[in-house]
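call fold target=S-methyl-5'-thioadenosine phosphorylase
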Amino acid sequence: MSVKIGIIGGSGLSDPDLLKNGAEQEVDTPFGKPSDSLKTGEIAGVPCVLLARHGRSHATMPTNVNFRANIWALKMVGCTHLLVTTACGSLQENIHPGEIVVLDQFIDRIWSSPTRCYHIATDREEIHHFDFSYTIA
């Protein structure tokens, strides 16, 4: 299976040297436009697609991010895996600014934003459950 990695992140994705053989691609999804155009290219020889979660101009507020369009857009262009980064503070005194952590729990505060993509695949609403046995953020 060939791998194509979709990366959703913040302002650090604007580094012009991050991608080799870079190009931009505009896409539209059943959920509207994603946060920004997709930047395609390679990192260490691996095909990658970068998407700035809040747009490269950082104009989209967290509660207005079109998560469904972002994920759908990356799937549309053939991404097989997603890496999603975020920056936030910690309530743990032993975790300091600049340290990298992997979450094993999270609180979804984006309850006001629709996040489901699966319902458009059928002509009726279906009940689905998310698997939380693996880290999700």
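return ok
The domain at 1-136 is CATH 3.40.50.1580 (Rossmann fold). Residues 33 and 92 are 37 Å apart (CA to CA).
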